[in-house]
Amino acid sequence: MKTLILATLIILVAADPVVYFREQFEDGDAWKSRWVESKHKSDYGKFILSSGKFYGDIEKDKGLQTSQDARFYSISSRFDTFSNEGQTLVIQFTVKHEQSIDCGGGYIKLFPSNLNQEDMHGDSEYNIMFGPDICGPGTKKVHVIFNYKGKNHLINKDIRCKDDEFTHLYTLIVRPDNTYEVKIDNKKVESGSLEEDWDFLPPKKVKDPEAKKPDDWDEKEKIDDPEDKKPEDWDKPEHIPDPDAKKPDDWDDEMDGEWEPPMISNPDYKGEWKPRQIDNPNYKGKWIHPEIDNPEYTADVAIYKYDSIGVIGLDLWQVKSGTIFDNFLITNDEKFAEEVGNETWGATKDPEKKMKDMQEEEERKKRDEEEKKMKEETKEEEEEDEEEEEEAKAPEDEEEQEEEEGEEETDSNVKDEL
Ligand SMILES: *[C@@H]1O[C@H](CO)[C@@H](O)[C@H](O)[C@H]1NC(C)=O
């Protein structure tokens, strides 16, 4: 019985998720003591704490928001250094581009513990960079960059990021069997093997430098039929003198030179003769360069492994600011991360959408009312104008009448004089 309890305890302890880092910005200004702004440049943009223009929960949805346009941002937070050796590594956070972003980063960087946070900048060496990046209609992707032996490697696959104005959950899972998974809004969008989807290692096989295509290797699938001969009557000139042309009657050989009929296309002309094609009896197929094991290749069972992970940072550029980062989580437990995702992003996404929909509905109503008001006003003005016109018209008519009368008078005067 005792051993059973002990075994159960061990299993429970072993199954407990390890949370290396968690930040949800739910304690007012206290985040400022946990996050360090870099001083590498003097004009980095300011992060503020905000849940934005619309949200699911005004307190829970507070996060770090970029607040100045066309700025670099550089801020980071430190946690107890760990290695992911033999462990799954899960990095998760939410991003909300409520400003309808045109160009800007929405990714995090995971740094080794020796990072000098006060001097963090774009070239500071990191372990992993992960998250969305948008620039114009051309760039809308999720970066997954790993530093492997001092060099940054981009994923070979294209993962599209979200480009709407709502909060989205981004999750990267790196497993000790060198597989990975990327999730957006708790749904898998990409997965596979680290070795296959990044160029960390040289290729396993290379073309044998010793192998050469034999000189007599025949790669021609078809050849000219040696039996096929050009018919004797094949060759005809392409153009012939027009047999219907007649020398004009008034042609003077001495004056105009010797008469020649104009040339026309020869209806019997058959073009260049080409022999019939037959299967080549000596055809050997395409020569395939034999491959050998690449002497440069050494397998690495620990591509996934980082000895030191100690800082998470936001190091990015934004043209139009307003992005909110929240719900940072670094853990060794995929399921726990999914639960946390459900409890945070999952719980507030619908109310967030509802609030935005309501705001849009209100704006639409306001616009409609303003339009209606404008229409009414112009209608009133038009009516007033019409009245004025009519009033203005009346005396004009009288004048016209008077003029006409006057003309008549003149006419009669003239008549009288006559
Ligand atoms: C998260 O929520 C989804 C959708 O409701 C559900 O299918 C899934 O089981 C949840 N995951 C966890 C770990 O609770």
Structure description:
This is Calreticulin. It is found in: Cell surface; Cytoplasm, Cytosol; Cytoplasmic vesicle, Secretory vesicle, Cortical granule; Endoplasmic reticulum lumen. A hairpin with a 3-residue loop joins strand 9 and strand 10. Mean pLDDT is 91; it is low at 398-418. The chain has helices spanning 2-15, 31-34, 194-197, 253-256, 334-343, 345-417, and strands at residues 19-23, 35-37, 47-50, 63-66, 71-82, 89-97, 103-105, 108-111, 128-135, 139-148, 151-154, 167-174, 179-184, 187-193, 205-207, 222-224, 239-241, 263-265, 277-279, 291-293, 309-318, 323-331. Helices cover 26% and strands 30% of the residues. Helix 5 (334-343) crosses helix 6 (345-417). It has a domain at 15-203 and 302-353: Jelly Rolls (Sandwich), CATH 2.60.120.200. It has six helices and 22 strands. The N and C termini lie far apart (146 Å). Strands 1, 3, 4, 6, 12, 13, 14 and 22 form an eight-stranded antiparallel beta sheet that branches. Strands 2, 5, 7, 8, 9, 10, 11 and 21 form an eight-stranded antiparallel beta sheet that branches. It has a two-stranded antiparallel sheet with strand order 15-20. Residues 186, 335, 338-339, 342, 346 line the site of 2-acetamido-2-deoxy-beta-D-glucopyranose.
Summary, kept brief:
Pfam families: Calreticulin (PF00262). The protein is α+β, with helices and mostly antiparallel strands and 418 residues long.
SSE topology sketch:
Blueprint: H1 2-15, E1 19-23, H2 31-34, E2 35-37, E3 47-50, E4 63-66, E5 71-82, E6 89-97, E7 103-105, E8 108-111, E9 128-135, E10 139-148, E11 151-154, E12 167-174, E13 179-184, E14 187-193, H3 194-197, E15 205-207, E16 222-224, E17 239-241, H4 253-256, E18 263-265, E19 277-279, E20 291-293, E21 309-318, E22 323-331, H5 334-343, H6 345-417
Antiparallel strand pairs: 1-22, 2-5, 3-4, 4-22, 5-21, 6-12, 6-22, 7-9, 8-9, 8-21, 9-10, 10-11, 12-13, 13-14, 15-20, 16-19, 17-18
Helix pairs in contact: 5-6
The structure holds 2-acetamido-2-deoxy-beta-D-glucopyranose.
2-acetamido-2-deoxy-beta-D-glucopyranose (NAG) binds at residues 186, 335, 338-339, 342, 346.
